[in-house]
Specification:
- GO terms for molecular function: 5-amino-6-(5-phosphoribosylamino)uracil reductase activity; diaminohydroxyphosphoribosylaminopyrimidine deaminase activity.
- The structure is a single chain.
- By secondary structure, this protein is of the alpha/beta class.
- 27% of the residues lie in helices and 20% in strands.
- It has helices at 5-14, 50-60, 65-68, 92-98, 118-125, 136-142, 144-151, 175-178, 210-220, 230-236, 292-303, 324-333, 345-353, 375-378, and strands at 27-32, 35-41, 72-75, 103-106, 129-132, 184-191, 196-198, 225-229, 254-258, 282-286, 307-310, 338-341, 359-364, 373-374, 392-398, 401-407.
- The strands form 3 sheets. The protein has a 9-stranded mixed beta sheet with strand order 11-10-9-8-12-6-13-16-15, with helices on both faces. Strands 2-1-3-4-5 form a 5-stranded mixed beta sheet, with helices on both faces. A two-stranded antiparallel ribbon has the order 7-14.
- Helix 4 runs parallel beside helix 5.
- The protein starts with a helix and ends in a 7-residue tail after the last strand.
- It binds ligand AOF and zinc ion.
- Zinc ion (ZN) binds at residues 49, 51, 79-80, 89, 92.
- Zinc ion is lined by residues 49, 51, 79-80, 89, 92.
């Protein structure tokens, strides 16, 4: 095969015409011993789903049930998992389980509140090996409208919608990560398998799989603000835009920089953010404008399109850092209560130490780095560290990356 089976499944999904609306474009491919033995796509409401079409085409092509039990099914979207009034077709997970397919590879989750990870759980509960993430970016870009619609949809009190707490170590993807409306501060940390965050206190690393990175960008669109520090700004030069390629984000969060001395104004700091101000504003928190130099830097940055919010002398730590609690208060005054902190170890630690983090999203990559700053040693309250037995609520895999979600006992009025 020249293309990967997932590439082929994405190609198939693309063959659906506009009649597919309001359903998503989905493709599926069945592979046995490196040969495609079945394939299909979903043409539109009332028609077979891609998985059903792929299984059907394999059977019509002469595949036996024993062949299916050794086959791998590549799906561009998480298979659906329930029937309900108005649903046209049988649940794809039932078909997959009934045909005893050995392994299922899924590019992206179905954000439909009736699915949202429950399709994956159903398959895993049935003993089917499930891999998530290959081709995620292309699969997301197949259905920007569908994703945007589903991400903003909630079915409160609907017995079909997933229960709030799936208990420890559940494989369910938390719907709160997919639905805007979840208040609080989420801290995102990416580490190697042994917990290394980066080579130094300021630097972060791009070690997570591309699929996980795309997914993180989609999730970003569910927050009102994303906070980071000067170190991350200068070393990573991030843009922090929401949405994967071709995917319409729910919103672009306000980019918030904590920069006590306004070093972002440093000559030579060639900030990529400057070119993204059309997508949304950037707000810089700093210490008091108590010197001509600070006033000058503030003016320079404002002239480049940044907003500046100076804090009081009492909000500056003797060692130079800004009080993260005060930053959150200012954001709350602006109506911002759903915040993502995506920054280097030092600032992450100050949010954790102040007890301001409600949720920890730990992206853990199966690589070993051997040296660097270790989250378990450096971050107070990090799971696996000296003083924190913590309840992991969810864990799932995106590409090669393991994503873990923890609820922290935060002292946060959000
Ligand atoms: C799949 N495979 O090919 C598609 C899925 O009304 P129905 O029965 O067609 O169900 C529509 C929902 O099924 C849709 O909102 C989305 O959640 C899922 N689409 N799922 O397993 C497919 N098209
Ligand atoms: Zn289905």
């Amino acid at each position: 095969m020249t293309n990967s089976p997932m590439d082929r499944a994405i190609e198939l999904a693309r063959t659906a015409g506009p009649e597919v609306h309001p359903n998503p474009r989905v493709g599926a491919v069945l592979v046995l011993d490196s040969q495609i033995i079945g394939q299909g796509y979903h043409p539109g409401p009332g028609q077979p789903h891609a998985e059903e079409a792929a299984i059907q085409s394999a059977l019509e092509g002469g595949a036996s049930l024993q062949d299916l039990s050794r086959a791998e099914l590549y799906c561009t979207l998480e298979p659906c998992c329930s029937t309900y009034p108005g649903k046209h077709r049988p649940a794809c997970t039932d078909l997959i389980i009934r045909h005893r397919i050995a392994r299922v590879i899924i590019a992206t989750l179905d954000p439909n509140p009736r699915v949202r990870g429950r399709g994956i759980s159903a398959l895993r509960r049935a003993g089917i090996d499930v891999d998530i993430g290959p081709g995620a970016a292309q699969a997301l870009s197949l259905n920007p409208d569908y994703l945007a619609m589903m991400l903003t949809r909630e079915l409160p009190g609907d017995s079909q919608s997933p229960p709030q707490d799936q208990g420890e170590d559940s494989q369910e993807v938390p719907s709160s990560l997919l639905i805007p409306g979840d208040a609080g501060v989420t801290l995102k940390i990416a580490t190697s398998w042994e917990g290394q965050i980066g080579p130094s206190l300021e630097q972060t690393m791009d070690i997570t799989s591309p699929a996980a990175r795309d997914w993180a960008r989609v999730l970003r669109g569910n927050f009102q603000a994303v906070i980071f520090g000067l170190g991350t700004l200068l070393t990573d030069n991030p843009r922090y835009l929401a949405g994967a390629p071709g995917y319409t984000p729910v919103r672009q969060p306000l980019r918030v920089i904590m920069d006590t001395r306004l070093n972002a104004a440093r000559p030579g700091a060639d900030l990529a953010l400057v070119d993204t101000l059309d997508a949304g504003p950037v707000l810089i928190f700093c210490g008091p404008l108590d010197s001509p130099a600070m006033v000058q830097r503030s003016q320079d940055l404002q002239a480049r399109g940044f907003q500046i919010q100076a804090l009081q002398p009492r909000d500056v730590h003797p060692l130079g850092g800004l009080n993260p609690g005060r930053v959150l208060e200012h954001l709350r005054d602006r109506g911002i209560t759903r915040t993502l902190v995506e920054t280097g170890p030092r600032l992450s630690a100050s949010f954790l130490r102040a007890g301001l983090v409600n949720r920890l999203l730990w992206f853990r990559e199966p690589v070993l780095l051997g040296r660097g700053i270790n989250a378990m040693e450096y971050l107070p309250g990090f799971p696996g560290g000296p003083n924190l037995p913590m309840k992991r609520r969810y864990s799932w895999q995106i590409g090669s990356t393991e994503v873990n979600l923890f609820d922290l006992p935060a002292d946060n009025p959000n």
